[in-house]
Amino acid sequence: MTADPKAGRPSLAQVAALSGVSVKTASRALGGEPRVAADTRSRVREAADQLGYRLNGVARELRRGASTSTLVGLLIGDLANPFYSRLAGGLERELRMRGLQLITASTDEDPEWERRLADALLERRVRGLVIASTATEHAHFAAEHRHGIPFVFVDRPPVDLAADTVLLDNRHGARLAGAHLGTLGHRRIGVVGDLSRLSTHRDRLDGFAEAMRAAGVENWADYLVENAHDVVAAERAVRDLLDRTPAPTALFTMNNRITLGALRALRGHPAPPALVGFDEVDLGDILGVSVVAHDPEDMGRQAARLLLDRIDGHRGPARQVVIPTRLLARGSGERPPTSAGTQAS
Amino acid sequence: MTADPKAGRPSLAQVAALSGVSVKTASRALGGEPRVAADTRSRVREAADQLGYRLNGVARELRRGASTSTLVGLLIGDLANPFYSRLAGGLERELRMRGLQLITASTDEDPEWERRLADALLERRVRGLVIASTATEHAHFAAEHRHGIPFVFVDRPPVDLAADTVLLDNRHGARLAGAHLGTLGHRRIGVVGDLSRLSTHRDRLDGFAEAMRAAGVENWADYLVENAHDVVAAERAVRDLLDRTPAPTALFTMNNRITLGALRALRGHPAPPALVGFDEVDLGDILGVSVVAHDPEDMGRQAARLLLDRIDGHRGPARQVVIPTRLLARGSGERPPTSAGTQAS
DNA sequence: ATGAAAGCGCTAACAT
DNA sequence: ATGTTAGCGCTTTCAT
């Protein structure tokens, strides 16, 4: 009656045999093609239902050629980071309007795993690939890219590969943060950053350094801590900074996770230092956290636009879109230097 | 010299031709099989590099049969919801230890889109499917399930399908919340819930109702608002509740997004009502938000365990794992009824 | 150590 | 309206 679990999934040939037609007719009937008699079609459908038949998309794609896939891949560092998940959301909605389906995988900031994920998706002939890469070179994508598979790099630019890119204006945002704190008179600013190899980190650091130079702050790097990759590490880094003598009067936390760690470290602090974070944080408006904000959803939308253009056959040189960053003053970043107890120097 | 973009990707046959060996030898050389002469191997590798060859995983899978896929699919309502992304994280880490790769797609709580995503993944013969389903019946998965594809339902149980399941103890958690507020003397409790068709919503509502009955609160449903699916809708719903006369003295927000909406609505409120939310919220500890907490990562891990068992050939009947829920009192839920201005009745 | 032939399940092209 | 043939790119026999 119904299928044997061990027998594996039924093929079109079995459906055809059961309904007494040829394989091609069965294919036509199930595929909704026009030239099929109504009763033939229903007979084939019944047979398929009875066998629990499902089209083998692998075989179909092999036969039809890759360009029929409706799947677009997205590789990001961490699903649980709201920056990435909002980016994914923007991308997904835009693709869906074109009937494309987004599948997302997490690299956990491991270049080797990233590569294996990219291989798995490319081997399955996804229609395109959007990637927030944690790797430091992308030459191995060159052949694939040349063969016409659209790549879009988001958040972090490609290295040794001329591909479409959507980036934040990291440098500008960090400069705003530095200038803001500098203008308020802060001279000892604890700066906590993510993995130092990431281009986003370096760009933000450059922007901040510019602002420090402009404000005439020497040796600002004395209060710099890098490679605080998760909330726990960030919290520890901030505690360590606050324990120094003299203590910093302000903090610049260079991404959303680090800001969360800082907020934990500052919890219950009698005279908390000023705080400006990069990236929005959930409830940041309610908590009054000043941040360098931007629009991750828009980043996703722009990436989708670039990708869809390529899918539609656009052949031009690689394009780059820059998403603006702006400072939102909500209170935490406006605390003056005196609020930090140990006002030495 | 290098490949023509229009020519499509090179096949193994082209690599073989260029290196002057048979297709099978090329396959062996590239696949790392033992019986190949060292210089043959390197010649084939060079030819592959030169052509920009990449294995066609579609063809490989067709030939080898589906059981070689390393991809596991996850379907969730919304990537940006931290509950789902943490669940995905737990699942992902567990699968990765077995060399399996997780790909996640978002249904946006649309049953039709969910079905299309499931079709796309099943047709490509993923190794297994984990699904937080928004659909109200799953009979269409029956054949696939019988043919041995492992399904695990998370957060929401399958309907008309006997498949492995991992659920929260929603009823218990909501009962705790209701009892907690009831014990403090609250009698008018604004209850805000998500889509009423979701089983999680119904179970939580049942649990809360039990607690209300036990506390002798009649007509608690007068302050019930359902179908507040996003933060904006939740904020509006809470504002409306607070505008009623008499106003509720407490709130039970039935998921994380609704809790966020409530926190926005309560911002700057002179005498905020007590608040207990279901699900953890980011910074909830710092803000002092009382919640019914649970462990989404563990939910992912348990789902992985069930899935891996099936992949390893386990044949038993469908199993169900229940993840415990507990109340975390952090301040917002412990405010007494009097704190709400309009103490009428 | 290498090669030839067959075939996975499907669809495009060409009959009828 | 339906059937026949061939072949997508790979791996699995089974030779040599």
TrEMBL record, chains A, B:
GO molecular function, one term: DNA-binding transcription factor activity
A Pfam family hit: LacI
Record domain HTH lacI-type: where: 10-64
Keywords: DNA-binding, Transcription, Transcription regulation
Identification of the protein by name: Transcriptional regulator, LacI family
Originating species: Micromonospora chersina
Lineage of the organism: Bacteria, Bacillati, Actinomycetota, Actinomycetes, Micromonosporales
